[in-house]
Input
Amino acid sequence: MSGGPKVEAGGSMRAGPMDDGSPGTRPTSEPLPGSRAGPGGYAFQGRRSVGRTIVGVGLVLSLAFGTLAAAAGYWQVVVSDELVQRPDNPALVAAHQNAVRGLIRDRDGKVLADNEKDANGLPYRVYVDNTVSQVVGYASRRYGTAGLERAWDSQLTGLRSGDPRRDLLRKFDPRPGDPEDLTTSLSLALQRQAVKLLGRDRGAVVMLDPRSGEVLAMASTPTYDAAAIADPATADKAFAAVRDDPTKPLLPRATQGLYVPGSVFKIVTAAAGLDSGAITPATTYPEQPPAEKDGLLVSGFRIRDGHHPKTGSEALDLVGATEVSCNIYYALTGLAAGGGALADTAARFGFGSEIPFELPTAISQVTNGGGPLPGGFKDDVELANAAYGQAETLATPLQMALVAATIADDGVLMEPHLVTALTDGAGRVQRIEPKTVRRVLGAADARAIRAAMTQAVEGKLGQQYTSGAKVPGVPTAGKSGTAELGGSGEPHSWFIGFAPANAPRVAIAVLVEQGGRGGERAAPIAGALMKAYFDTVGG
Output
């Protein structure tokens, strides 16, 4: 056909100018890439293997679905609990607005936190009284949550239970979960008594069972009106008042207040000395009696005592030094054990890390660290002063309660806890069992310290330093502390202890900010509270 393309056998056609110069297709003898020769020698564009295409698509789809499955597993299983409890979780926000929260009860079934409805029919939280505000906390539509209300928020709102298996299945249940009730180890009677005894002072009390770690009372003063913060009608005014209060009532002093511990820290030093082998219960120091008059000189710094008229030239052993709270004996013990041993022993008690607990805790410390001596101490002066609870040593009341409880429990540290059971709407109970954290020191060493602490309360001289701490008719062990703050301010008043001394069932720490000597303020509070324990909970 005139003007049409010319085709040659064995060739293919490609675009190009015609013989007359017009656009068109012209033949070529070279096959195109990816083509093959067809019948009659013509070359055709090749086809990709169908099998290879299917395999490629399958691999891509498998990779895509695998990625989706892994992502779903990560978000719905691995970090599910974290997502459920996030304050910006829409389900949690909705639950705060509309859900009737589970009840919170004390160990005897008394309701600590309940619910009422506002004028719009929406629920809000009410609390038994202000004595539980620092530990139970509050749940407010406007200001969120605090205390146990925050720690167990998803269980109280029904978004999570105490049973991981039920929680896993709940993800696939379209029905909302039922709020769960909390049963705590708290005794409302002891809680009220602790707040009453602290009175107008700023301070804290922690009482616990050394055998299980159950917290019996955890009081911080001043308290605040959590119910007013939870009530939408009074929330703004109530929260503004406590936020701007210079006494800081929102600070949970029992768990987040850091204080110079003074002589109550000597119990940690005794544990370090015995555990390291630096001392035995019979150890005495020949330099101690003469140093009572003019002080012990450590690198130019003088360490002094106040008991000299009572002990004269007697060389004190562990029991005698603990009974009269001898700074010189404990400074020498700290130096003999060394900074590394003191820091390591304190770490086993819980210093230097956050305590495993439902509520946030401040981190207690033996030293600021960074010094050239073992344990991070700056020099021997700091180490000697830290050994009797001064220098850079800081502790929370909860931490010192755990020190007392560990000695009471033959050197075993139990994990402190407040919630003992969760109960769902069907009446199913999930109990929370006690947990052992670690053995801090050997039983024989713990009993040696227990004997020294018993003498500090029961002994003739010890009673002068721990006045009021003894429980009538019950052998009592303890240690008072007077934490010097420098300047002209009164020292912090401390006491830690336990009873009965021979078979402890309750341990306690009391801290009164700038309350004076330990035997004047903290020790009588501790004695009264331990007596109340035996009259009510442990009678």
Notes: The radius of gyration is 36 Å. The CA atoms of residues 296 and 302 lie 5 Å apart. DSSP finds 22 helices and 21 strands in the chain.
